Records
---
Amino acid sequence: AQKITQTQPGMFVQEKEAVTLDCTYDTSDPSYGLFWYKQPSSGEMIFLIYQGSYDQQNATEGRYSLNFQKARKSANLVISASQLGDSAMYFCAMRESHSGYALNFGKGTSLLVTP
Amino acid sequence: DAGVIQSPRHEVTEMGQEVTLRCKPISGHDYLFWYRQTMMRGLELLIYFNNNVPIDDSGMPEDRFSAKMPNASFSTLKIQPSEPRDSAVYFCASSLASGVTYEQYFGPGTRLTVT
């Protein structure tokens, strides 16, 4: 069964607008971590933000924030004030404590920021 | 810091040939991961090491794939014999277990094409 689901294969947003990329996850492990990575067209994977299952506050890193809704098992990435350079693939991933340090990745969402 | 280094960046080989991919993790990191990315299957974990010891190789497709980590600063992923379906981007990543988030830092990837 898919552990990470990203239902939006592609998204468009206008420059300077905010955009939300969806991610839902499936785990029975009480201790887990959720990650978002960005993959620009150049191919490298860039770590953006992390949310631990026990964290009380939603994680924020600059223009990135994570809308963590534990009961709904969702961890949506919010990018504020979009920039042209934000155009990329975005991957949600989960690490479960029982499976060590391996990451399970979703299929990704392609984001295009338009002028 | 130099980041995770992978070589070669591109490899084109003929079916049946041996292919060796190389990775140098970030100095001081104690976990090393090998992933494969394809359009059909997304990002898949192949194997990971902790302190040079393989911990989980359940993602290795078949016996044609092998990985080694002879020391803390070097790992190889070998495919012998290679097949066209092995064509993919292979990523190496490393992380530090003493951190809070255990985020993985990815190398630039090796794009493998088997003809």
---
Amino acid sequence: EAGVTQSPTHLIKTRGQQATLRCSPISGHTSVYWYQQALGLGLQFLLWYDEGEERNRGNFPPRFSGRQFPNYSSELNVNALELEDSALYLCASSLHLFGGKAYEQYFGPGTRLTVT
Amino acid sequence: KNEVEQSPQNLTAQEGEFITINCSYSVGISALHWLQQHPGGGIVSLFMLSSGKKKHGRLIATINIQEKHSSLHITASHPRDSAVYICAVNHYSLYGGSQGNLIFGKGTKLSVKP
């Protein structure tokens, strides 16, 4: 069974540009999570999508946005890039959260975004 | 104060030693996760707990819901155990229910010397 995949592996952009990162979840998983790990910092929650809808959002500005497609793959868009957006962006997937039950999350290899 | 606190931040051990990493949290939770991150960045889920104790090979994870505390133990440590170990929780509240996204501790960097 294929794991969570992310593309591209590396992305280099300049300040002010837009970046698009993609994630394909494990087959059967409907929830997709985006996390940011800046150098020297811990993991921070960005966005959670489930069954095509945004379910929760972390403490990030609106220029961080995304969507989930009917096949449950997801896209993270970062507009007006700033130097401090340089980080490893990790996607994870899980089964649909139902009835207050939490599920194990499976992480992709990440996209390393460098903003110059 | 962070909602999830880990200790120690850094840990160096000799091969064969018994290792304990601690995690405390200050919010209601529906589950607690222990994750492992190797230098390349990839993250692997080791355990998900909502009560009691789980064991997988040389790894043991425990949780005390009343004390809001969890521990990860590694028995007979090996250099290949060198990694960052991260504690994370699913937040739960009566108002918002269970959140699917994780809240993370800052991680414990473990180095096991041969």
